[in-house]
């Protein structure tokens, strides 16, 4: 099977590529960044998904499956850049999928689009509205990308579209939103709050994406691994020191004193939980995580 | 704390415990949870439906989360009952804990959402009355400005100013499980009728509980009810008195 992965140079995208390659699939990749030592059987096209050469990859190579992972979550990029890549990039990728006869498109999204709020259900199902547009406005581009990808389900019924809302991926790669949050020796928390954090091991996340391809999944699915743990447990389990900060002082401490920079909207995500119900995905793919929460934290800490 | 009729709580399977709020703070909920743990041979854990404003309070939010209590949302109630869990409901909501001492043990308006969920899930409703909370934490005044500042619907002010419960004896009286036919899609009139039935039973339990509590604290009580008790009995005097009229509506 010919599989195109956008954003193939991301740590998790590489893992997906290597996993699929190892079992014999032909892998194409699009990324602005080079992959100089890409293994045989992985063809990387160094371009932007929004540029014409990206369309040429679809036109000339006609992939069977597209795994769209060319989205950015870090806030070092400007809001305009995030919008261009996350929303406009997603729009173009799905239009190419439709135009060039792709059979299945897998959008790798985030569970954070559900947003964190004190009156939100603890377990978020796929039917829940994406509250992040109001609770975490800086995530609006990712919310829009997720909804745009989901719109392909009715716009182009012939294209099997799987929208995966994955919990944080954490592990030896030290890449991803949660890994960035836990990068330093101290982890900021809001005094008096200790929300549940939902995460899964890098390898389990990769396995889930591969299963979505294998089962030709179509629809919107939450993807999760082990049950969530409190943020304080996560911090200590990964060898970090939780630093409780009174909420009014939080904005003054972000990016200072060795604490990570976080946009104002992130406060809600440190106060309240975002936990997903991944029953539908497990039923559809028989997915079972291999690493429990303790193993994930240890693998992050010791790598 | 004493509790009576604990055997009316099913040993397993989903059920709703529905009762009155008693006292200026929802410590009655904690005592109901304790009764299910300590007064039963087979302890059960119940999940309360917490007022949404509590989720924004530092430490309070964390505390509720740690003891397994969730924001009062239909999604939570449905999921828990479908999983065969016990649900603790105070249909009076914050209106119940916000009652002033002069209105003690008078039930205020019951919400109706719990009934639709009970019908939808087929869960039995176990009514209960909580007695003693009104005396343990009597509210004589609402500090509205303070409530506005902290984002609460009210702030109880007792005669001794600090809203902290006094060490007085409390009682919980569980009634027989109630079953209602339906799917949860019934018209409002039907649902309101069912809710009224539950409210009537809770009111009777409150009246009976107040009478027994008064007899016990006055030393005139001759015979224990047929039910079990939990915890140590309280010998503290109490001024418990039931509603002075038959109409419990405000």
From TrEMBL, chain A:
Pfam family, one: Epimerase
UniProt domain NAD-dependent epimerase/dehydratase: residue ranges: 3-224
Gene3D superfamilies tied to this protein: NAD(P)-binding Rossmann-like Domain
Domain of life: Bacteria
Protein name: NAD-dependent epimerase/dehydratase family protein
Organism encoding this protein: Nannocystis pusilla
UniProtKB/TrEMBL annotation, chain B:
Protein name per its UniProtKB record: Lysophospholipid acyltransferase family protein
CDD domains xrefs: LPLAT_MGAT-like (cd07987)
Upper lineage: Bacteria, Pseudomonadati, Myxococcota, Polyangia, Nannocystales
A UniProt-annotated Pfam family: Acyltransferase
Limits of the Phospholipid/glycerol acyltransferase domain: 15-133
Claim: Transferase is one of the keywords in the record: yes
Residue span of region Disordered: 217-250
InterPro entries (alphabetical): Plipid/glycerol_acylTrfase
GO molecular function, one term: acyltransferase activity
Gene Ontology CC terms: membrane
Alphabetical list of SMART domains matching this protein: PlsC
PANTHER family according to UniProt: MONOACYLGLYCEROL_DIACYLGLYCEROL O-ACYLTRANSFERASE, TRANSMEMBRANE PROTEIN 68
Keyword annotations from UniProtKB, A to Z: Acyltransferase, Transferase
Low complexity bias (residue ranges): 228-250
